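Notebook entry, structure prediction.
Reason for the run: the old model in the group folder had no record of what sequence produced it. Starting over properly, with the input documented here first.
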Amino acid sequence: MQHAAEERYYAPLNSMSGVAEYSNSSSHIILGDDRQRKFAGLALAYQRRISARRWMVWDYSAEIRPLLFESDPTLDGQRITLTIDGKSKVYEERSPEQFPIENVKLYPDRTYSGTTLEGDSFTEVFHHELGRRWTYSPGVTPLCFSVHLLPAHRLQPFLASTAGFIVSTRDIPEFYTSAFNFTFSFGGGVQVFSRERSSFSLGYRYYHLSNANTGDRNPGVDANLFYAAFTLFKRH
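New structure, fully documented this time:
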């Protein structure tokens, strides 16, 4: 009976996956406030089937992220261009270190014009020098649950949710927040069983990062995370 069930459904009892994931930006989707954050990483996942039915398979999995990087926009300095009667001078001020900011849209160029005490017309342009810093942020996601639909088909849509944490080499996403952050996500995708012992998945996650108010500040980050996974398993 067990052999027949394994052959009937594309629902492996145990499987291992390699996952590549990327998010190009962040915005306020549900909870997070900081914008323009990026994520890029590689993960390993172990998955165990909990139950299999005719139309649905329920799985538990755990993930580790030995390679995960988070990127923040930064304010690196300021450039001032002063023009008096057609003659320009440029003054630059550099920050001693990259200063992570909430949103680059809060730092537009500003132009002021007027007349000097001597009667000369002038224009002053303030330009913020913006950059980006990447922070190493490995993590563990011990709670992952997924529901696969149509388990008798090689192409299966699925829904998934996760909960875990990451530990960074410095505070993210801003100063005075925390290097330890909790994460959770939910989303879905499709898994294609192209061979007898392997499959390929494409998915999307709403991904949230927060220190749960353990730091002085907790702006939080919401990201649209896209990922691809290659899975290996043994068929009985």
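Summary: The mean pLDDT is 93.
The old model has been moved to the deprecated folder.
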